[in-house]
Design the sequence.
């Protein structure tokens, strides 16, 4: 089992999302993030996922929620 993490970025009253497309279901929008790798803490995982998916480095300011 591994944990997943997503990031919320709001800038200029806009929410950053990633658009994914599935041939069966069409377009879907999701928050940037992904799975935590073995040995990573949640902040390291989120920073890595943002770099991979969005191509930018981020500063994690606070956690909003865990589920």
Sequence:
């Amino acid at each position: 089992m591994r944990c997943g993490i997503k990031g919320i970025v709001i800038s200029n009253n806009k929410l950053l999302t990633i658009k994914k497309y599935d041939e069966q279901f069409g377009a879907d929008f999701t928050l940037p993030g992904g799975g935590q790798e073995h040995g990573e803490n949640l902040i390291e995982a989120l920073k890595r996922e943002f770099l991979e998916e969005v191509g930018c480095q981020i500063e994690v300011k606070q956690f909003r929620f865990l589920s």
About this structure: Residues 4-53 form one domain. The mean pLDDT is 91. The first helix runs from residue 42 to 53. Residues 18 and 43 are 19 Å apart (CA to CA).
